[in-house]
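User: quick one
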Amino acid sequence: MSTNPGSRIACVTVGLPATGKTLISQKVCRYLQWLGITTKVFNVGNYRRKLHGAHQLHDFFDPANPDGERSRREAAVEALKDMIYWFKKEQGVVALYDATNSTRSRRDMLLAECKKHDIQVMFIESVCEDESLVLHNIMSVKLSSPDYKDMDPEQAVEDFKARIVHYREAYETITEENLTYIKLINVGSQVIINHIQGYLQSRIVYYLMNLHIAPRSIFFSRHGESLYNVMGKLGGDSDLSARGKQYAKSLPLLIATHLGNSDQLTVWTSTMKRTIATAEHLKYPKLAWKALDELDAGVCDGMTYEEIEEQYPEDFANRDEDKFNYRYRGGESYRDVVLRLEPVIMELERQRNILIIGHQAILRCIYAYFMNHSHEKLPYIKIPLHTVIQLTPRAYACEEKRFKVDIEAVDTHRPKPKAGAAAKATVEPAVETPVEATVSDTSKQPLADASNDIGAKITTTTMSTTTFRDSAF
Ligand code: ATP
Ligand code: F6P
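Assistant: Done. Structure below.
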């Protein structure tokens, strides 16, 4: 994605504690990084803890406490300095300056500094009038914060509520007409935008307008094994193998079992025969997206990896060198695919339960968005055949479960060859856990109640992501 050369944007969050500012910052960062835009979050709360320690009680945040006020300002200035340095030294494009920034004077200070360095400022204000949601936010993310480590949970809730009261005393919502801002009221049920300029700011606004926090799951499955998979051929539009058809039959029960109490689901496929056939037995609304078609291998479509290595040795080596950026002759690169999937991601953010029946490269790209994988790792993510992946968004990250159906299928994953080794020679061991995560529980448990019509066993693997984060001030 191209941006104006030299355009640098500081997205500055505004709002009371526990109104989703950090979640918003992290999501915008992940989205832009996925699109290839150099983006970073500067969380002032982390600076505050580093400079002044983690165990500050609510009176530290009292606007009538001059020591607290000075210390908080110090943390804000440190984060600001680092942000400006990052823009210059790392050619940063978008920074998320994550703090409460709830007074005019604090925002004026940020505006003045950013102006000096030719950085545009876009405010993202979150207003949440729903007391029960704020309480839920406190319980779900604040109690696990280092601020309240080893504190009795009830006491921690009371302290955090008192912190909010202090902020409310000094809080000034944004009203200045000359400022660039988006105001999200009650999780986007009302959105006010002002003075939004340029492509990148519009993208961020559009993205923010599509976010919701209602519980839901996103399921991924590759199509059942295809005839081309069996022959080791890339691309094409072949039918399912007998085992692939069996897998398609096993899907309805597997999905119903893991949808929980809901029967609300929409199935998205590509326009290719193998994904549509895999969805055949699922009795949910379906939508076929052209944007979900497999990465186009151009002149190599229909060839095996061995044939490509023989006929296009240079291309083959170049792909191993930089798989994300390598574009097949007359075809696509992973980078191209990420850009064509952007509308899919936007729509996914809007939706509730979705099952995507897709292809290896496509699902790698979508999975990398949710699980925050780098472009370098993305083309090697393992998305095996005959496996359903369930992602459930939690406070700051997604929980992952994998259900492997016991119907054999070929392995189409080609690992990255070791540096310097001939492409065919020794390969790196497969990356076992394709998430930068802690495997919290890995259990092999054939689903006792999953006696579906083909008698397939299912192996469940649970993984969970961990992200450190904390309150903004
Ligand atoms: P602090 O100022 O203490 O850093 P914060 O405003 O950064 O707090 P978060 O830590 O991001 O708040 O709170 C995360 C919680 O907020 C999550 O449980 C998430 O579901 C919820 N949330 C996300 N977006 C919103 C929103 N727009 N309004 C209210 N809550 C939201
Ligand atoms: O082999 C199955 C397949 O979906 C091909 O159609 C596609 O070219 C390939 O996977 C993508 O995987 P990789 O980028 O690792 O070659």
